[in-house]
Write a structure and sequence with these properties.
Number of strands: 11
Shape: elongated
Mean pLDDT: 81
Structural class: alpha/beta
Low-confidence stretches: 315-339, 422-427
Order of helices and strands: EHEEHEHHHHHHEHHHHEHHEHEHEHEEH
Oligomer: single chain
Radius of gyration: 26 Å
Distance between the termini: 62 Å
Strand order of the largest sheet: 3-2-4-1-5-6
Helix content: 40-55%
Strand content: 5-15%
Largest sheet: 6 strands, parallel
């Protein structure tokens, strides 16, 4: 059995379509020294690129992503085959001293990797033939309706057109007298196969649905219809991957003349339906350690949790860095080093490490101070460009730092950015002399852009 308290051997990021899983995974891989392992039942197939939103090139920022393009559509993978491939990829990544980060939204595949698959009888050829014949005569939706009567759990997870999974669920019920959904639910309570931490990422519909719509529009502009025409010509219409969300609707467009407008509407509706099924799976899946907005995982809350799990960013440089070394994460930013260092002030080591690492990736020189007196001494002894005060709370003594700097350094006082998770409009801390901006700690990218702008301003004035 896996000890959940042992140092985790992998991080697993799940979540609905378009929630931002890949971007979060790439960012964490850069911070923690990791590599990605896909858990998407369409991205594994060669040629299924646009409709699956398969990550490529700049999106990956140089981070290796395993289990993309590992199979042809006419030789489909099942959950067991995926788990074997993922096991090998995880072992390879760990052998290189890197952190495996599994990312994807295919629930059954994630469960197969984490807990293995439920034991069911082998396929009975004669039973399979009878069910396949019935599916051909009556259609997959008719069999799905029958499945809903005997195994509502399985039927709720299986699309009415997913003929292969419908037939298999009916087989298991006929062979065992027990619904496959019940067998899987019991199996899900078993011990995990890895020491891992699992995060469910999600966004509110008001945020997620516009992302889905933007993704679909981008797919269409990039030539999704032409991609599907080529796949149909190569594999025919019946391969399983062409029955997945988005692809099956586009097949109707390219093969049967459904208008592009109607096809787009159907893709959007099917995607939102699929999101509801993904959320249901995540709600019921045991072993999820955190349920977070992607920004929270990349911000202060996530940094502290990752540190508690035992995952820390690579050792910070203690000396000032005058220039970014050639090839040292140059893909992250081409921005030249600022003329003056950034001073990070606060007692939250995890938060300081998070922002310090991100600033260094962008080429900034970074200093640290634990208290007000230390910060003032640093500003007096160094040509500090920007002061970032972390985790400011209402009434905190940190709010006095900007005033102290302004009083002691006068016109030479650097601009101050305060991070406060509880900040509200009208917070008196924002009116301290020298305070240029207050913002929530999870807005890491905005903070980095702001610091760079202030450093450029200071450089022009110097």
């Amino acid at each position: 059995m896996t000890d959940r308290d042992a140092p985790p051997s992998l991080l697993l990021l799940a979540g609905p379509t378009a929630s931002g899983k890949t971007d979060v995974a790439v960012t964490l891989a850069l911070r923690l020294g990791g590599e990605l392992i896909g858990a998407d039942s369409v991205q594994v197939y060669r040629g299924f690129d646009l409709g699956s939103a398969k990550p490529r090139g700049p999106e990956l920022r140089g981070v290796p992503h395993h289990l993309l393009d590992v199979a042809d559509a006419d030789a489909p993978l099942d959950a067991m085959a995926y788990a074997r491939l993922a096991d090998r990829a995880i072992a390879d990544v760990r052998a290189r001293g890197r952190l495996p980060i599994v990312v994807g939204g295919t629930g059954l595949w994630l469960r197969a990797l984490v807990r293995g698959l439920v034991e069911v009888p082998a396929v009975d050829p004669s039973l399979r033939a009878r069910l396949e014949e019935e599916a051909s005569l009556r259609g997959a939706p008719a069999l799905h309706a029958r499945l809903a009567e005997v195994d509502p759990r399985a039927a709720a997870r299986i699309h009415p057109n997913d003929r292969l999974r419908i037939v298999r669920a009916l087989e298991v019920f006929a062979q065992t007298g027990t619904p496959l959904g019940a067998l899987q639910a019991a199996h899900a309570l078993g011990a995990p196969r890895y020491a891992l931490r699992m995060v469910a990422l999600d966004r509110a519909n008001e945020e997620l649905y516009p992302r889905i719509e933007a993704r679909v529009a981008a797919m269409l502009r990039a030539g999704f219809a032409d991609e599907v025409r080529g796949l149909v010509a190569q594999h025919g219409e019946d391969v399983r991957a062409l029955q997945s969300v988005g692809y099956r609707e586009m097949v109707e467009h390219v093969a049967r003349g459904v208008t592009l407008e109607e096809t787009t509407a159907r893709i959007l509706q099917s995607t939102k339906t699929y999101v509801r099924r993904q959320r249901t799976w995540l709600k019921n899946e045991p072993g999820i350690d955190r349920r977070m907005h992607p920004d929270a995982l990349l911000g202060a809350e996530g940094a502290r949790w990752l540190a508690e799990c035992g995952w820390r960013m690579p050792a910070r440089r203690t000396a000032l860095v005058s220039a970014q070394a050639p090839g040292d994460d140059a893909r992250v930013s081409q921005q030249p080093p600022p003329p003056r260092p950034v001073l990070l002030v606060g007692e939250d080591v995890a938060l300081r490490d998070l922002f310090g690492h991100l600033l260094e990736l962008r080429g900034h020189e970074v200093l640290a101070a634990r208290d007000i007196d230390d910060a003032v001494r640093r500003c007096q002894g160094e040509s500090v460009g920007v002061v970032v005060i972390e985790n400011v709370l209402p009434g905190s003594s940190w709010t006095a730092l900007a005033r102290s700097l302004s009083e002691q350094l006068g016109a030479d006082a650097p601009p101050v950015v305060m991070l406060s998770g509880s900040w509200a409009q009208g917070d008196p801390a924002a009116s301290q002399p020298g305070v240029r901006t207050m913002m929530a700690p999870h807005r890491a990218e905005q903070l980095l852009d702001l610091v760079a702008r202030y450093c450029r301003e200071i450089g022009r004035l110097a």
